[in-house]
Amino acid sequence: MKFKTLMTIKAVICLGFGPVLLFFPAWILGLLGTAFSTGAALTAREYGATLVGNLLLTWLARNAEDSVARRAIIWDLFVYDAIALIATVVLLLTGVLNWLGWGIAAIYLFFAVGFGCFIRLGKKTA
Questions:
Q1: Does residue 39 contact residue 108 with C-beta atoms inside 8 Å?
Q2: Quick check: is 27 in a domain?
Q3: Is residue 71 part of a domain?
Q4: pLDDT at 125 over 70
Q5: Which of 48, 50, 118, 124 lies at a 20 to 30 A Cα distance from 21?
Q6: What pLDDT score was predicted for residue 126?
Q7: 3-class secondary structure for the chain?
Q8: What's the whole-model pTM score?
Q9: Structure confidence by residue, pLDDT tens digits, 69-100
Q10: Measured between alpha carbons, how far is residue 21 from residues 55, 69, 70, 124 in Å?
């Protein structure tokens, strides 16, 4: 997969989830089987803001040529998605999220592997 394609897919996913978490946290948390509270709303909205930031980063940097900055972006997104994958799986295994959470885990796995492949390729990140 090309770098631009992976970045575009991530931007679209972030566009789908970021604004929903910002503006409708109770609805999305309810879908995931999680109790809604003031603390959950704060965390969901902050996570929504993170996704909007990722949306801007991935969309604006999708055409970046191979450079130190592009490799830093790849590392950042790899670490972000790998940590989010682990956190999501822990929440799933402890029963905090319902079965829909496995879809979220699959998305994080997809991106962690995708960005991990670019790290493994080194400078060949076309």
A1: no
A2: yes
A3: yes
A4: no
A5: 118
A6: 52
A7: CCHHHHHHHHHHHHHHHHHHHHHCHHHHHHHCCCCCCHHHHHHHHHHHHHHHHHHHHHHHCCCCCCCHHHHHHHHHHHHHHHHHHHHHHHHHHCCCCCCCHHHHHHHHHHHHHHHHHHHHHCCCCC
A8: 0.90
A9: 999 999 999 999 999 999 999 999 999 999 99
A10: 13, 29, 28, 35
Q: Is 39 helix (H, G, I), strand (E, B) or coil?
A: helix
In a domain, 126, yes or no: no
Q: With the CA atoms of 91, 94, 99 and 103 taken in that order, what torsion angle do they form, in degrees rounded to the nearest 10?
A: 30
**CA 109 to CA 26: how far, in whole Å?**
25
Domain count, the chain: 1
pLDDT at residue 120, as a whole number = 86
Task: Report which DSSP code applies to 32.
Answer: T
User: Position of tokens 């829909």?
Assistant: 100
| Residue 115 per-residue DSSP state | H
Spatial contact of 29 and 36, defined as CB atoms under 8 Å apart: yes
User: What would you measure as the largest C-alpha separation in the chain, in angstroms?
Assistant: 46
